[in-house]
TrEMBL record:
It comes from the Bacteria. It holds the Pfam family Acetyltransf_7. This is GCN5-related N-acetyltransferase. Residues 1-125 form the N-acetyltransferase domain. The keyword Transferase applies. InterPro entries: Acyl_CoA_acyltransferase, GNAT_dom. Keywords: Transferase. CDD domains: NAT_SF.
């Protein structure tokens, strides 16, 4: 697999992620208040948004070009985006994706910040979704690291 360049986008570069979503035929949009991240290999091949919420973050808009799926791109992108975050990161996904996210240290969320709980309830009126969370107490913590604070 070629080397990937994974980096956050500056405000002026947000159109790169918007363009990527359109190219993929997706109706996703980068979060207006989010930190945008992309993976590149001769152009954008994946992206996501990471928005502040409560005392953590909300991961949305994860999309990988179908030609690049199954190569670990999503995992590398998520790890890079979450490397400097503190607190929990929540996401909503279709139940079929639970095992994928569990491999990346996410687990079913027992509780959500009010803003996310209301949004999930609204989304669940028309979609099958579940909430997952990944607790990350410090930038150096890792899943299974019992010394994390």
């Amino acid at each position: 697999m070629p080397d990937l360049e994974i980096s956050p986008l500056s405000g002026l570069q947000r159109r790169l992620l918007e363009h990527f979503y359109r190219q993929q035929g997706s109706r996703m949009r980068p979060a207006a208040d989010g930190e945008l991240w992309v993976a590149r290999a001769e152009g954008v091949i994946a992206g996501l948004s990471l928005s502040p919420v409560a005392h953590g973050h909300w991961l949305t808009g994860l999309l990988v070009d179908p030609q690049w799926r199954g190569r670990g791109v999503a995992g590398q992108l998520i790890e890079a985006a979450l490397a400097a975050t503190h607190g929990p990161t929540w996401l909503f996904c279709h139940p079929d994706l639970e095992a994928f996210y569990q491999r990346l240290a996410f687990s079913p969320a027992d509780s959500l910040p009010d803003a996310l709980a209301m949004r999930l309830a609204r989304y669940q009126r028309s979609k099958r979704l579940m909430a997952l969370v990944r607790d990350q107490s410090s930038p150096t913590s890792s899943p299974g690291n019992s010394t994390s604070v």
